[in-house]
TrEMBL record:
Residues 153-248 form the DDE Tnp4 domain. GO terms for molecular function: hydrolase activity; metal ion binding; nuclease activity. It comes from the Eukaryota. InterPro entries: HARBI1-like, HARBI1_animal, HARBI1_dom. This is Putative nuclease HARBI1. It is found in: Cytoplasm; Nucleus. Its main location: cytoplasm. Belongs to the HARBI1 family. Its cofactor is a divalent metal cation.
Length: 383
């Protein structure tokens, strides 16, 4: 047994003595701020912050109370502050108390916890069951009097620091570094799907083509007669309704009044140059149901012409033109011309698991058994 000599601390120079940890005082925002002030600073009130915290509490709790660890509530508050404002971490350190390294660690830990697949599938669901589909259709119809739409899709740039590798591919058309995030949402702005793995230079249409959303529609997991809204940046599809760039008077103009997506003149327009050819080829005869299959190169544009002719001509003409430029909600439409409650006899087994077959994209059923509502999660996983 080795005996170490006793050390007289009085004989140790002061600069070599162990110093007690000095912890900075941490701000108690729950007691310092009202709900209105919390919303201004963190985008959520007290109840909302606690709701988020409870989702990830197990992942954020420390195993020990040594070194005065941050509470899960404070980690969520730190993360919300950073996401809401984009302020430097040192500013959050000055405001809330923890050191900048602790702020950085809390943000990474909280975001990783929120990205857990079990949390994602709880909140991000793509509709495929009849009841959810019909509700989505009704919600969009009530907003714009536009039939058979269950969601809208768009890309948005999220600014990033210039990466060290392949820096040039992250520069978007507006000249700064970003990723291009595809978002699908319903009429209440709730997420139906999100894909965040593409550099900023990649076109919205390319991202959509390689996403699980396209798989859902083109493999028949979403019933026929369901559509998404999209802007001019997307190529034509029979399930994706985009505006006319140069609408002709009549049903095309009335269609555009309702879809009403602003034109971004800087954006590359996909496929519109061939519209005149498509228009001349259209047979002007109403159909009971829009064309279900794309059998020709311009089938999507033909489909859009058929769709606009079917739903925005004849009886609707006088009504639409009378309300052009005004709010469309509340217009009394003829049910035989524009039926928001049309149903389709198609179902998807809620227990079926589908791999989308594209890199980084997987689809899960929302429920674990047949008693669930059968809605599907369309979540895109970042590699």
């Amino acid at each position: 047994m080795i005996n170490f000599p006793a050390v007289n601390m009085a004989e140790v120079p002061p600069q070599q003595r162990p110093q007690p940890r000095n912890y900075r005082q941490r701000r108690d925002v729950f007691n310092d701020l009202s709900d209105a002030e919390l919303i201004r600073r963190y985008r959520l009130d007290r109840e909302g912050i606690l709701f988020v915290t409870n989702l990830v509490r197990a992942a954020l709790e420390s195993d020990t109370m040594r070194n005065n660890p941050l509470t899960p509530e404070l980690k969520v508050i730190i993360t919300l502050r950073y996401l809401a404002t984009g302020k430097m971490q040192l500013c959050s350190s000055d405001d809330l108390g923890p050191s900048q390294p602790s702020i950085s660690k809390a943000i990474s830990q909280t975001i990783d916890a929120l990205c857990d697949i079990n949390i994602m599938r709880r909140f991000i669901r793509f509709p495929t069951t009849q009841d959810v589909i019909e509700q989505n259709k009704a919600d969009f119809f009530n907003i714009s009097r536009f039939p058979h739409v269950i969601g809208a899709v768009d890309g948005t740039y999220v600014r990033i620091k210039a990466p060290k590798e392949n820096e040039e591919v992250f520069v978007n058309r507006k000249g700064y570094h970003s990723i291009n995030v595809q978002v699908v949402f319903d009429a209440k702005c709730k997420l139906l799907g999100i894909l965040a793995k593409w550099p900023g230079s990649v076109h919205d249409s390319r991202i959509l083509n390689d996403s699980g959303v396209t798989t859902l529609f083109e493999r028949g997991y979403t019933p026929a007669g369901c559509h998404l809204f999209g802007d001019h940046g997307y190529g034509g599809k029979t399930w994706l309704l985009t505006p006319y760039l140069r609408p002709r008077p009549g049903h095309q103009s009335r269609y555009n009044i309702n879809i009403n997506i602003p034109v971004d003149e800087e954006y590359d327009v996909v496929g519109e140059a061939e519209d005149d050819v498509a228009r001349r080829a259209v047979v002007r005869a109403p159909r009971a149901v829009p064309l279900p299959q794309a059998v020709r190169r311009n089938a999507a544009r033909l489909y859009r012409d058929d769709f606009s002719y079917l739903h925005f001509s004849c009886f609707l003409s006088a009504s639409m033109e009378a309300h052009a430029g005004a709010e469309m909600v509340g217009v009394d439409m003829d049910a035989t011309s524009m039926d928001a409650s049309q149903t389709y006899n198609t179902s998807v087994p809620s227990s079926k698991l589908l791999s989308a077959g594209v890199d980084g994209s997987v689809l899960w059923p929302a429920g674990d058994d047949a008693s669930s509502n059968g809605s599907w999660l369309c979540s895109e996983i970042i590699d």
